[in-house]
Write a structure and sequence with these properties.
The protein is an alpha/beta fold and 231 residues long. The chain contains 5 helices and 11 strands; from the N terminus they run βαββαβαββββαβββα.
Length: 231
């Protein structure tokens, strides 16, 4: 049976179609989910895509956390049962929903950053990174204005000691994120948020590489194995 991966569209989402294409290229069935849907339609995993949900009013992701669909997604993800990948604005939504700690703030340059970016994979024990090797460097796309990951020192220390930093920037820190953190996971390893865009690096014709596809094949490998993840 083909895995079904939901891709949520909020008002202002920009990268939902790109995420759905990445899901399809990985071999799963993308399922379009609308922010006002009453339920998740029985999908096996969910991607929260990049963009400007609800126009980024108040704060990035601050309104999206209250979307009707999130009332089912949040408890399912918090329990460890539902794998969720949040990309860029999706990462912001995960932090606003308290599924991940910390927050995303204005880039240290106070300018929008749009560049090809190398990441180092630090944790391959999540539902979304199992097809990578620890320490592997991948080239994807970074495009954000509020991409600086911040948290208090105790939280950062906990993330480091528990191995919950998933990816880290290589070749300089493009947005001032604390400790060069580009993405993190929750304690179960089923929820991953990252600021760069792996869905824009899945085809040689349009991306800087195809090395982002591993995020989407990893979830299929995880579900095929049927084993729990370890952060």
């Amino acid at each position: 049976m083909t895995a079904r991966v939901g891709v949520v569209t909020f008002p202002g989402s920009l990268d939902d179609k790109d995420a759905a294409r990445a899901v399809a290229l990985a071999g799963a069935e993308p399922v379009s989910l609308w922010h006002a849907d009453a339920d998740l339609r029985g999908v096996d995993a969910v991607v929260l895509p990049g963009g400007f949900s609800y126009g980024d009013y108040l704060r990035c992701g601050a309104i999206a956390r209250f979307a009707p669909l999130m009332s089912e997604l949040v408890p399912a993800a918090r329990s460890g049962a539902l794998p969720v990948l949040g990309i860029c604005n999706g990462f912001q939504i995960l932090c606003e929903s308290h599924l991940l700690p910390g927050a995303l703030t204005r880039n240290s340059s106070l300018r929008f950053v749009n560049r090809d970016q190398v990441l180092r994979v630090e944790n391959t024990g999540t539902a979304w990174t199992g097809d990578y090797a620890e320490g592997q460097e991948v080239l994807v796309v970074l495009k954000s204005g509020e991409g600086s990951y911040v948290a208090d020192e105790a939280t950062l220390d906990e993330l480091e000691s528990a191995g919950r930093v998933v990816v880290r920037y290589v070749g300089g820190n493009p947005n001032g994120s604390r400790r060069g953190i580009a993405g993190i996971t929750n304690e179960h390893g089923n929820v991953v948020g990252l600021m760069p865009h792996p869905e824009h690096a899945v085809e040689a014709l349009t991306g800087p590489s195809t090395e982002g596809l591993g995020f989407f094949t990893s979830i299929l490998s995880h579900m095929a194995a049927g084993s729990p993840v370890n952060a």
